[in-house]
Amino acid sequence: QVQLVETGGGLVQAGESLRLSCVASRSSFAINAMGWYRQAPGKQRELVATRSRGGNTNYADSVKGRFIVSGDNAKNTVYLQMNDLEPEDTALYYCNAESLGYIYWGQGTQVTVSS
Q: Tens of pLDDT along 29-39?
C-alpha cells in the first residue's frame, strides 16, 4: 500500500507560479512512476505530467513549456513547478503513483488561478 500526501496548492493570479509537492509513504515495493493529474469542475480528470523512476517525463500539451515535473527517488517525492499560470489551470491537482501495476492517488490539492 502506498499513501500519497500533496502540498503546495493555493490561490494565485494569472502569470504567477506555484510549486506542488507529493510524498509517498515508505513502502517495501518499488514505485515505478509518479505524476500529477487534475480535475476541473464538470470535467474529467486529465494527465498533467508524469515522471518515471528513470527520470523520463511526459507532459500534457496544454502545460508544455510552463510546467516542470521533477522528483527525488530516494525520498519518494515528486514535484510540479507551475509557471505562468492561467485561469484554465484552475483545478484539483492529484498526485499519482504506480507500483507493481497498482495505481495510487492522493487526496488532491486545490489550485485556483484568478484573472
A: 688 999 999 99
